[in-house]
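Deviation from plan, reported transparently: 7,8-dihydrobiopterin complex.
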Amino acid sequence: MAIAKLTPEEREAALAGLPDWRWDADRDAIVRQWKFADFSEAWAFMSRVALIAEKMDHHPEWSNVYNRVSILLTTHDAGGLSARDIRFAQAVQSL
Ligand code: HBI
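Because the crystal trials were delayed, the predicted structure below was used instead.
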């Protein structure tokens, strides 16, 4: 499924609205980390993110170590960051 990568200008504009996310130039991805009180809190968050992923048919690259969760968003179909990643990050932001 062809979807366009964001231009540098589009990326900067999108990131201005997502201050907690940073751009990973090597992956052309956006990344964010969270630290929760404990594993239970982290897992509860991941459960909600998983539902977003299935609903949007867009899936994060992520990892969890005890109370920490890292999420990296990129669009494999585009070979880099796309509007889908921005929409996903906004949905996570609004949890
Ligand atoms: N998730 N992050 C990410 N990137 C994709 O390109 C992607 C996905 N989830 C599902 C998906 N693509 C499918 O739409 C296609 O691979 C069919």
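Residues 1, 57-59, 75-77 surround 7,8-dihydrobiopterin (CB under 6 Å). We consider this an acceptable substitute for the interim report.
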